[in-house]
Amino acid sequence: MERHLISHHAHADHPIAAPVSEDNLERLLARARPPARARILDLGCGEAPWLVRALSLYPDATADGVDLSDTGFAAAVEEAERRGVSDRLRLHHGAAASFAAEEPYDLVLCVGATHAFGGLAPTLDAVRGHLRPSSGLALVGDGFWERPPTPEQLARLGAEPGEYADLPGTVERVESAGYATVYGHTSTLAEWDEYEWSWTGTLTRWALDHPGPDGEAALAAAREHRDLWLGGYRGVLGFVTLLLRQT
């Protein structure tokens, strides 16, 4: 079973594909306060929950979402129609790193999708290329080490010690890349647990409802993910979403 389909089924009950609650998602978007008639871009949008909420908050804004997999686009359109914002949402099937637009954006998001660019530093470079000069804002969400991982934990994660910094180090990396941090949200353990229990549980339920090769593959993926979370990165890997402005 293809990985993007596993991810799609796993996120059915938690379309925010990151350990961020709906309340905190809206709080971050409200803090952004883009200008009138803002142009908004989400690189790695999935089912576009951030964009749909942003369009609901800012009724004169327009938005573009880009994702390599278009599996979640139908759900994005359905939710956008339910909220009455579908006429201001455009979805693009393709690699986020290859997306090009003729005009800059007032707000660029990349939350939980920095892997599409190869990590935080190249993500920040890519985001800058889409931002309106001087006034553009970015919402970028990525992992950080809550505490130093052990060699065994690193091996289980397939990670290097320097792949993430701690929280102060993450902010330093962002600001060294030419951004000022104007707000942030550090995901709580409760947000992480809600996200992971939903991811693994929703996928398990789907697998049990679909016996056969696909169900078996999904069930194996759910168990592998749960074991990696509970026995590996729970309480070790954190997640922070930063509201940034270019300096």
From TrEMBL:
Query: PANTHER family given for it?
Result: CYCLOPROPANE-FATTY-ACYL-PHOSPHOLIPID SYNTHASE, FATTY ACID C-METHYL TRANSFERASE
Q: Which GO terms describe its biological process?
A: methylation
Gene3D superfamilies named among the record's database cross-references: Vaccinia Virus protein VP39 (3.40.50.150)
> Keywords assigned by UniProt?
Methyltransferase, Transferase
A molecular function (GO) held by this record is: methyltransferase activity
User: Out of the domains of life, which is the source?
Assistant: Bacteria
Which SUPFAM superfamilies does the record match to this protein?
S-adenosyl-L-methionine-dependent methyltransferases
The chain positions of domain Methyltransferase read: 40-133
> What's the protein here called?
SAM-dependent methyltransferase
Tell me which InterPro entries the record gives: CFA/CMAS, Methyltransf_25, SAM-dependent_MTases_sf
Cross-referenced Pfam families, in alphabetical order? Answer: Methyltransf_25
